[in-house]
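Weekly puzzle thread! Below is a chain. First person to post its structure in token form gets bragging rights.
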Amino acid sequence: MKIINARLRQQTELFSVEYEHGRFTAITPQESKLALEPNEQLIDADENLLMTPLVEPHIHLDYVLTAGEPEWNMTGTLFEGIERWGQRKAWVKKSQTDQIEDTKRRARQVVEMLASHGIQYVRTHADTTDPAMIGMQALLEIKDEVKDLMDIQIVAFPQEGIESFDNGRHLLEKAVQMGADVVGGIPHFEYTRDKGVSSVKFLVDLADKYDKLIDVHCDETDDPSSRFLEVLADEVLQRGMGERTTASHTTAMGSYDNAYCFKLFRLLKQSKINFICCPTESIHLQGRYDGYPKRRGLTRVPEIDAAGMNVCFAQDSIRDPWYPVGNGNIMRILDAGLHICHMLGYKDLSRCLDFVSVNGAKTLNVHNDYGIEIGKPANFIILNAKDDYDALANQAKVMLSVRHGKVIMQRQLEYCKILSE
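Winning reply:
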């Protein structure tokens, strides 16, 4: 198949792009817009942006679409959200089979939302502080069932703690043995600092033992004394596991003093860990204990980015006890994140799509097979925009999504014309 009249990111000319057997075979600059010939088998991008698929690096598919069941999170805090989820687990009286099917139904509905917005790579967390492992079982099945739409990584996530939850270590390892791709943790939620440190060391040991990636909910609080990020970074630095490790949220960094942060950044850069910021969820959950002025409750995204470390944006939740809205559109998250983080300068705007594409792919450790390059898988989208700035300013829609050379989603033909199949 051949695509004509396509724009590529950071390029001024138009391109023709070809792929066969699910891989890119040619990428050729065009001198001008090509006229259409009758009966040609091609896609006319009509001068719109052809780019890599969007990436959702942090979401909880086992939690989605449960807001208000059985009660709403009335304080809007992280900790009430955890309390409400624990309440829901006790409230649901269905059989395990029915619970798995319910989780799959909700997860599939959101997977379809994500796919409709051009997302083809997803990392989801699955709660392991459920001895029945309902979320793990459901998401392992969903991962296989939707593989034609997207790649899904599953994080074994101890929502209520590793050391502070009964049998938490065993449950986390059980989830890894079941097939989790990533080992998670939540050290700031453990009962004591000592238990938080112990949980980090245990989860890194576990990831090392089973050769898994790491993604830790780390310091998701406004408390400036929550400093488990340094523990995580040091552990993975000593083992050479930094590029396989992600620190999610790290919102306490927004409350650290600059002197400590300056010292911390030296360690973070050496460790090479990745960062995920969930801007809409964090600004909703954090700052709840403040009077005025209220903190923004986000990590230091511009500083992390300027220091050359990898950071991306994510949605985190869709209509669950932690976040009551959301529709799967990560362009909405990008817009909010750049606003909240004071990143509307020209340099940021001109490459803003990095935060929801290539940076996320690097975080998921899939970047070697990700890109508009000859020989790589023909996974791409076409946005009705000319460049990154245009895509953000006009909240561009994905007009076409192609995975392994097959169309999986298509919108209005006036933006992207498929002339012949």
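Puzzle host: Confirmed. Bonus trivia for everyone else. The longest strand covers residues 119-127.
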